[in-house]
Amino acid sequence: MSTSSVIGISSTRWGKVLQNPSAGALLLVGVLVISMSIAFPTFPSAINAGNVANQMVFVLLLALGMTVVLITGGIDLSVGSIMGLSAGVGAYSINSGAPLILGLLAAVGAGAVLGLANGLMITRLGLPDFIATLAMLGIARGLLFLWTNGVPFIGYMLPEYYVISGLERPFGFITVPIIIAAVAVLAIIFVLRKTSFGRHAYGVGSNPHAALLSGVPVDRVKITAYVISGLMAGLTGMLMAGRTTTVAPTMGLGYEIAAIAAAIIGGAALTGGRGHALGAVLGALVLSITANAINIAGVSSTWQQVVTGSVLLLAVVFDRASALLRERSTRSAGRLAVT
Amino acid sequence: MSHDVVQAEVTRPPVGLPVLIEARGVGMRYPGVIALDGVDIKLRAGEIHALLGENGAGKSTLIGLLSGISTPDSGELFVDGVKQHFNSAKQAQALGISTIYQEQTLAPDLTVVQNVYFGRELRRGLLLDEGAMRRRVESLCGEFGLTAADLDSPVGALGALKQHVVQILKALAFDARVVILDEPTSGLEESERQLLFEHMGRLRDRGVALLWVTHRLDELFGLADVITVLRDSRLVASVNPAEHSPDSLVRLMVGRKRSEGEHLRVHDRSERIQSNSREEFIRLEHVSRYPLLRDISLSIRRGEILGLAGIAGAGRTELGRIILGADRPDSGSLFLDGKEVTIRSPRHATRLGISMVPEERKTQSILGTMSIANNISITDLGKVSRNNIVLDRRRENRLAKEAIRDLGIKSSSEQQKIVNLSGGNQQKAIVARCLFSGPSLMIFDEPTQGVDVAAKTDIYRLIYDFVDKGGAAVVISSELPELLHLSDRIAVMREGRLVDELAGVDRPGCLGSESEIAETIMAMAAREAGHSAAADTKEEMA
After folding, report:
1. Rounded distance, CA B398 to CA B374, Å?
2. Are residues B204 and B185 in the same domain?
């Protein structure tokens, strides 16, 4: 009885939509955009869209890296701290006289190296992902505080940096960070869909034992995922340093929450094996639009974190529901196959 | 299907002791499988009742029914003569039925006292009544060899025997009248085993009814009061041990197989190349990995199927994992085509031409979130990518389609998620995955576990095709008929050692009838070392 009704739901078109993990996020974006457009005429403007796009770049880049890590079945709690420390490395290098481009590369490289450290702790020392990256969260943040003595880095803003970080917009609201983010999205889509590494990543997250016995280089895949996540965090720190023109020791504090939220809203699963780059875009969009809506509606920005948390909760509840639907339709399909 | 009906020979011991539990004609079926078929059993107070049978004979199913984990589809259960219908293990426990499982069900970080009362703690008001719990455990533990110091140490720090004792205490603390022991001696040293037997004797003296599942025939004599033998999901006999010997019990367990055997014989072995002309692919010399594998020397030839027989825990899977590079040996060497190699990882093994169909499909084989195509190609993505980096999906899908057709995998398309296939088709997809990397050696670990008869035949055919094309195959199976049917040669393992090798299994009549060979193997696999009867039997046959 219940079986047939479940089959009824899951085989309709709506059933298919409801089973898609990103459906909830998409629905939320739609509802938000429509209701905000009705309530506040300034909301649906090109300028505001540009603001939203420029705001979402940071979370988007972090969420892309986080998605890769989540697909392999891991989690990276250290991205906020890596972002801050990498920005510090970049600012310091420029202040010490390094050419701008080298300074920027140093920031990105520092992120990649810290990500590599995460990967090695997890695979070589056998630490749980959660613990290793939690340790990195503390260590990287602590190092930044020690290094700055609590005093922000300033004075590294060369003229070109204003353009690179999007503070100056020679091409209208399409800023350099937006271009970088777009390239990063395409790159991650390519890596996940088109390369052996991407396929291996899904395999490792789906079933690490099976992947190992099938000849997948599980450790190498995990390390690579954390390097990508660290690299994205470094890139984000580099852009953020340009945007804020100072590197405070608190830079990037709490960004891991937004990054994980965006990735999960976008359909990545904490249990591994699921997630995609466009989902991360959707997740980052949801978070940025809600932030923007709060702003325009004149609500105090201190509400921001509460809203982020609630949106995450909503997305996960929705995901649980759709997973249940999927599971039931799978089981009933299996039962049909047997009989 | 089959035709020779199993006659239940029933010679029950003298009546007199009260029957605590009785099952009448209980049966259990799963889709496509009959797990238990009209079995009768009576457990009496103060009696040790042994339950024997090969793997898959229905022992676990019967235990599940008696301990309330599952509900029988047919037949009736009586406790103290009152008909009962168990829906949960809790109901069975409330009636005094406790089950001690093979896998540990203790919380390793909690102390003995905490474990005994875990989930059923005694309270005084809102607080735990630590004193009362401890006193009760103390009053019970003395005769079972636990010291006062043991009671406060975490269970994980105790040895295997003491952990069994904790489970026994757990049962006694709740006045269990029926205790079901699922292979309690596995993992115990010889001396510990003797102690456990003494404990079992004590339980019997307290008037507890024991149901004791074991694979080791030599243990039974002198301890069991009744022996019940299951075969092919049916009751074969309930017998008095005084009237039997290990050999006669083996005969009851193996019987004349009414298995799918005959019509599964799809392959004409006489056409195959003779054993001695096959060249060696891999050779193991004195390979050990303590404590699971000791001094294994073995060679596997191309065009040959080597069967690995043994009871659970004999080290067969561990041997497979060594060959696959999933574990490293502590000592000994491996030679591939005559050259010594170190197999560093399963990835390395794949490159060397070795692949494995693992034992547990759900936990070790399938990539649940992925499609059939992706599940097949994962072993060798280089084959479906350009420059070893960029995947060529069209090529991947084409090869997957070919595999689905060649192996007869029933699916809607190669893009279907693997979890939506039936067990047999999932297993065929896993075989396709292993074939995808073009191996020279394939290890099949329980390849037909949980697979229906039709898929079984298909999998046998795949194995034959593979060796006929010059591949070497190792088949690990707990089903003797399967091993006899597939293997050219059978190596028997026991407690991490290779105890014997039977060559010429492929030449019918050479070693006697199929059931005679089965008995020889069972005897070798189940006996203790030093027991020479097995070797004698074998010599007689050779």
Report:
1. 12
2. yes
From the list B32, B349, B433, which residue is nearest A338 (CB)? B32
pLDDT tens for A239-261 read 999 999 999 999 999 999 999 99
Q: What is the helix (H) or strand (E) element at residue B396, kind and residue range?
A: helix B393-407
Domain assignment present for B264: no
Cβ contacts of A199 on chain B, cutoff 8 Å: 374, 377-378, 381, 391
H or E stretch covering B418: none
ipTM of the complex: 0.82
Placement of tokens 């010997």 in the chain = B245
Mutate to test the interface with B, among A209, A213, A336 (most CBs of B within 10 A): A213
| Residue B338 backbone phi and psi in degrees, to 5 | 85, -10
Long-range CB contact pairs, A175-181, < 8 A, 24+: A175/A54, A177/A54, A177/A57, A177/A239, A177/A243, A178/A53, A178/A54, A178/A57, A180/A57, A180/A61, A180/A235, A180/A239, A181/A57, A181/A60, A181/A61
Structural domain span for residue B56? 1-96+177-255
The alpha-carbon gap from A45 to the nearest alpha carbon of chain B, in Å, equals: 41
**A213: nearest CB among B346, B377, B419:** B346
pLDDT tens for B175-230 read 889 999 988 877 677 778 888 898 899 889 989 999 999 877 778 888 999 999 99
- Non-local CB neighbours of A55 within 8 Å, separated by 6+ positions: A288, A291, A292
Number of domains in chain A: 1
Distance, CA of A136 to CA of A115 (rounded, Å): 9
Kindly determine whether residue B369 and residue A202, on different chains, have CB atoms separated by under 8 Å: yes
